[in-house]
Design a protein that fits this description.
The complex is a heterodimer of chains A (170) and B (212). Chain A is mainly alpha-helical. Chain A has ten helices and no strands. In chain A, α9 crosses α10. Chain B is of the alpha+beta class. The longest helix of chain B has 44 residues. Classes of the chains: A mainly alpha (170), B alpha+beta (212).
């Protein structure tokens, strides 16, 4: 029973989790994939909690975010290891959005892990302040201030790299 | 950038246009089943180990009682499976510790972190693998987790699935920040012992904060 439910859930939502993980890891595909696999394994091991959750996807996203925060606490993970976005040269010519993608990822990579998590939860998953605070285990005030700081930082980082890109985002 | 839709659009730009090749659900399932099997084996080993300890303790008590019918004080400083802290300085420059966990040794040290491993060889020799090791770090992040009750320097603890992290502000005269120790679960560390060991840490001038 657990196996069937797990396969069904993974078929439906793995891509969603991977996209979230990619944003949390600022484009580091390998770490994002590790994070998703760790999360899925953890969910499988305590599947009863998944069954009890109001929304399995929301529960999985919360687990993923917590796994990310935990991973960032580990000593060997440091921010400077994240901005790596390796694109094969052939793809550069074929992908007109690549510069923009690189710029946004570089800007995301300048955020601290918790700020990045706040941005992803608030603006990618559309969670409100209190939901985000509950998930991250902090106060709503902290979420608000982290969000404000993160957006200011993103704005500055994007503007520094390429003013046209910032205008393009508008 | 303050407009939520603009932020979302920026995040959309950060994602690769085409999904990369990802494992199939059945590959994920196989991976998860392996983890489940490993966990079951681990629990079985722990259960058998605990049973063996109970039996050994039972035989020991019987032997002591049977000599002349009186009990003797055979208590050591720590019970089976727990950690003894010895009053010896443990050097791991730029970090040092007033106490030394018996049966544990420094494996790796640098300005960013120290790892301390059990001498029984159970931990990986790869310095970048932290499973089953004590990991001591220094950073400028906020304390994380719940405050630990009791007197003395304030300590926060955070419990995760496989380890517990205790954090504490550095002392006056040391580089300002938080010093943290990540303790692996099932390695015999009890919370008061974790706190004592954390409070014995000194962060030297050469320590560098971990980022993130």
């Amino acid at each position: 029973m657990r196996d069937e439910e797990f396969v069904a859930f993974t078929s439906a939502h793995r891509e969603d989790l991977l996209r979230t993980a990619t944003l949390l890891c600022a484009g580091d595909a390998a770490t994002a994939e590790d994070l998703v696999q760790t999360t899925l394994t953890s969910l499988y091991l305590s599947w009863a909690k998944m069954r009890a959750a109001d929304s399995r996807l929301a529960y999985a996203r919360a687990s993923l975010t917590n796994a990310f925060i935990d991973e960032m606490r580990r000593a060997h993970r440091r921010r400077e290891t994240y901005p790596a976005l390796v694109v094969p040269p052939a793809q550069v010519a074929d992908d007109p959005d690549l510069d923009l993608r690189r710029t946004v990822l570089a800007a995301l990579a300048t955020l601290g892990p918790r700020q990045r998590a706040v941005v992803v939860l608030r603006h990618w998953h559309d969670l409100d302040v209190s939901q985000t605070a509950r998930l991250l285990g902090c106060s709503p005030g902290t979420v608000k201030s982290q969000n404000a700081r993160a957006l200011a930082h993103l704005r500055a980082a994007l503007a520094e790299v390429d003013r046209d890109v910032v205008r393009g985002l508008g | 950038m303050d407009d939520p839709s603009r932020v979302r659009r920026a995040l959309e730009h950060a994602l690769p246009p085409d999904p990369v090749a990802i494992p199939t659900p059945h590959q994920d399932l196989a991976h998860a089943r392996t983890a489940l099997r490993n966990r079951s084996r681990r629990r079985l080993r722990l259960g058998l180990g605990a049973l063996a300890l109970v039996m050994v303790a039972g035989v020991g008590v019987t032997g002591v009682l049977s000599r002349d019918g009186r009990t003797e004080d055979t208590t050591t400083s720590a019970g089976p499976g727990s950690i003894d802290l010895l009053a010896m300085t443990l050097h791991a420059r730029p970090y040092s510790f007033d106490l030394t966990p018996k049966g544990w040794s420094v494996q790796a040290r640098n300005p960013y972190f120290v790892t301390i491993v059990p001498d029984d060889g159970s931990a990986s020799t790869d310095p970048d693998v932290f499973i089953g090791k004590l990991v001591i770090t220094f950073d400028h992040n906020a304390p994380g987790g719940q405050p630990y009750g009791g007197s003395g320097r304030k300590v926060w603890f955070h419990v995760d699935s496989d380890y517990t992290t205790l954090s504490m502000r550095t002392s006056r005269g040391e580089p300002a920040g938080m010093v943290r120790i990540q303790y692996p679960d099932r390695a015999g560390w009890q919370r008061p012992t974790m706190v004592r060991f954390l409070r014995s840490v000194h962060v030297g001038a050469g320590a560098r904060p971990s980022l993130g």
